[in-house]
Amino acid sequence: MATGPAASFARRVRAAAKATSDTLRSATTSSPARFAVVVFLILIMLFTALLSLPIAAAPGYRVRFADAVFTAVSTICVTGLTTVDIATTFSGFGKAVIFVGVNIGGMGVLTLASILGLVISKRLGLRAKLMAAGDSNPLRAHGGPVNEGQTVRLGEVGQLLRTVALSTLLIEGLVAIALYPTLVMAEINPLDALWEAPFYAAMAFTNTGFTPNPGGLTAFADDYVLMTILMTAVFLGSIGFPVIYALWKNHWHVRRWPLHTKLTIITTMLLFFAGAIAFLSLEFNNPATFGAMDAWDTTFQAFFLSAMTRSGGFSVVDVGELYGSSLVVGSMLMFVGGGSASTAGGIKVTTLAVLALAVWSEAKGRTSVEAFGRRIPSDVQRVALSVVAWGATLVALSTIVIAQMSKAPIADVLFDVISGFATVGLSTGLTADLDDPAIYVMAATIFMGRIGTVTLAAAVAATSRSQLYSLPVERPIVG
């Protein structure tokens, strides 16, 4: 056995490596939510550094630090809001960095944290599984005893995480293949289309909305095939990985779908059609948006705008030219967002569905909230209320601060703030004109909007506290 200074140094190195490994393992299993926040912060700092490199800027451009920070936050949080023109400001290297960033961010906060935790600790601890299930499991695990159905699904977390990664690669690949010929037919250089197709595919599926070419989608406003492909990719990204997993596992056997899948699909479609009808009714005579289009174009663009306000972020019409009433409708749709554990943001459609069912049950005088032959427990309703309260508070505070800093019209500020909170990416043009302090506030809003509602919901859902007594009941006056 070797002795001496070399052997002693080797032992110290092994001891330090083991201590570091134990620390990382403890971090991933004891507090996955906190670990997820740290992971995203590290990623934002890393991508800020990469986007600040001279090689990341296009010839003749220099990326300011504030713009690099904001773009990194918008990239990792798959938002799409930007203070600069992505197409002209960044070089091929910069766009490649953004492409990689949105795919990492698109996997979701806790999903990414669970995957990294699995790599570091070689296994998912029970608490990490509970947190991963809380973000990506259709039958969210709650405090208290775990029933048999939830136990089975906790065992599927590893498979579900693999499904997340594989479905991302598969769907983006298929979308890129479908987009390539449409881009070529739209007179995009075939060599440029080779990288623009996967770029658009990633931006659509991750619901980010960055565009690689100057002018964005305006050049493709009449290309219904391309826009339909983008809408489909946005829809698949916004319904969430649990829904994709359930559809893949149960195919089209609707009766076998979990309650989460049913609520997500139904609420998503209702909002999609309701939003399109609202935009069609409000904007059909607006000469700056739909007024100059024929009936077919107006109808299609209304549906496209409805889909994009759910979190897609792509835009053909100038959002800043929408009527104030349409901005309010768009703000409402953005605030709701997409499905849980999806690339979309917002409070999530299942949150809205649960609250709507609770209101309906209360109006009917029912003692429990039920849907499709299942009872929704009260702790899920508390999580839904917590998420809405968090979102509304964050939006209100950010709107007040940015409005005070920018002195811009409150309707424009509110729209852009909700777009940032819900990681949508649509803008009235306000964000690009913000000063540096307001840019940092908007970046913080995006970050808290992306991770806040998810970690809050997962933390509340995974917390288990036993109380062996109950206090006397007293009813305050409500309403």
From TrEMBL:
Keywords: Cell membrane, Ion transport, Membrane, Transmembrane, Transmembrane helix, Transport. The keyword Oxidoreductase does not apply. Its main location: membrane. The chain crosses the membrane at residues 35-56, 68-90, 96-120, 160-180, 224-247, 259-280, 332-360, 380-401, 438-462. It is a multi-pass membrane protein. The keyword ATP-binding does not apply. It is found in: Cell membrane. PANTHER family: KTR SYSTEM POTASSIUM UPTAKE PROTEIN B, TRK SYSTEM POTASSIUM UPTAKE PROTEIN TRKG-RELATED. This is Potassium transporter TrkG.
